[in-house]
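User: Can you help me understand a structure? I only have the sequence.
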Amino acid sequence: MAAGDVRKLATIRVDSGSILSWILLRSVVPSGASADCDYLIVSMYPGIPPHPVDLDELDAALKKAGIAMTAQQYVDRRNSLTLSSPTTYFRTRPSSEPTKKAINSL
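Assistant: Let's start by predicting it. Here is the structure, written out as tokens:
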């Protein structure tokens, strides 16, 4: 799912401008049940992150990405395959420089 449908949806979000960039990182050590997470998704926003996508918005994005399932089916599938890590990190870097320069410095 991470390399397929999630990537397609991320591409749609980048193309629409709702995010600037997206990175999927895979944890190598530790692995298995002792790992806090196997994958980490990092999204870079052009400003303050927007509200979470609702089911109607997700339905439209799934259709645009060519994923043949409803938003509820996608959410149910994602929830059956994932366990959320208890910690979320945000880093805000205000800048008057062009966006491309700010991203390259990360």
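Now, to help you interpret it: The chain is about 40% helix and 10% strand. The two ends are 27 Å apart (CA to CA). Let me know which part you'd like to focus on.
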